[in-house]
């Protein structure tokens, strides 16, 4: 049976070869190249930690990093609270609830290009839906896409509209797993809705909550298309997140090594967010 | 699930939320139904008639959108077929066959779950330039095939199938490949549907890779094509036309969503278990 023992490798080989060649090799190549001053076309000079040192004193990168953190802090808590509330509200066996679940999920299937196309003409002050509403109320339209204080909230708003579906569905699935006798016991105790939510629903949803926060943090740390298409990171970098910085350094300034060093820093942040979730979700001894 | 009615305040808030979800979509459709000349003077005209289908007529008369739609279909279907084939083969082997380094290789594959796109996309771009694969269908499809999720997902599914089936087939003299293809694979159809729908959606909506890999407009996918139309909309055919393109481009994916809603909901539910 010697041949049979090796046969399994033939089944995993097609995937493994592509995986090693097109994912693991580029990952290692990127890590390696981040220590070089390299352009997009192949020339390279060893600089050791030079790129990393330069990044930490580059005001443009640090501004982008701050923008990314601002976006994460605006989007993740809002989205989590909003979708949890929606899931609790829509977790019922009625036709209306089913239709509303469909409505809230529908935006998630659209691509970033369509989402930004739609939102550009919601937000833009000369032709947008918000401007029409503001005018109808007799107010000045806000320059959502060009004022330095408004572009990040505009990106957050667009992203929340776009991403509301998936976390809502995750919470709904989590709610389904809570044993119904827990609620029956609460009903016998005549607990209020709020008490029931705090004492039963929230603790039971702990794992789902952590999953949602981790997935959203990882996703929003990598926010890219919305910023590139809606504001182009402007005005003067006020809404440029890290991934847009990486994109511009690589494809506008052609400094591949420098862009890769920034990508490795972001990769570390994403990994930390993921590990933090596993750490928080570990089974605890004091938990019953 | 609750059977009772929603409290009134929750109902009102939810309906307001739903209106906020739908309003941008309605606005887009209304704009797409207006003549470009009228919108140039006042976009508020979108709230009043007369409405016209001329923007859609202009798209149907011939437009790069069709080419981009075709490219998106080829790339998404190619990616989906590739992911299903590779993940099924590998998932079967990891779940059922004993071979050298099986555990090590499985852990090696799981590592991929933690690698985000932005950590590999620049070196991938350079690699594909060496291979001369930019602006080609293989160039657009291949990076979509290396995700670990499919293998992990199919391995779990194969593990859940009863062992008696393989043993009975083996007693009947079936080869390993026959057990895979004839006995077990047909039982994985629900998993294939879920993985397939998600891969298709992800590939259809992919933006960053096609943006840097496809640089000539005849190789654009729909996402990249619409991004280029959006970037220079002032010079193109006008706002109404642009919005008609957006509506037209959303239709295929909305149809997929409506048809496969159940798979999508089940798959998300599975993630929590």
UniProtKB/TrEMBL annotation, chain B:
Its main location: membrane. It is a multi-pass membrane protein. Belongs to the binding-protein-dependent transport system permease family. The chain crosses the membrane at residues 68-93, 105-125, 137-158, 179-201, 239-260. InterPro entries: MetI-like, MetI-like_sf. GO terms for cellular component: plasma membrane. The keyword Transmembrane applies. Keywords: Cell membrane, Membrane, Transmembrane, Transmembrane helix, Transport. Signal peptide: none annotated. This is Permease. Pfam families: BPD_transp_1. It comes from Sphingomonas lenta. Residues 69-260 form the ABC transmembrane type-1 domain. It is found in: Cell membrane. Gene3D superfamilies: MetI-like (1.10.3720.10). GO terms for biological process: transmembrane transport. The keyword Membrane applies.
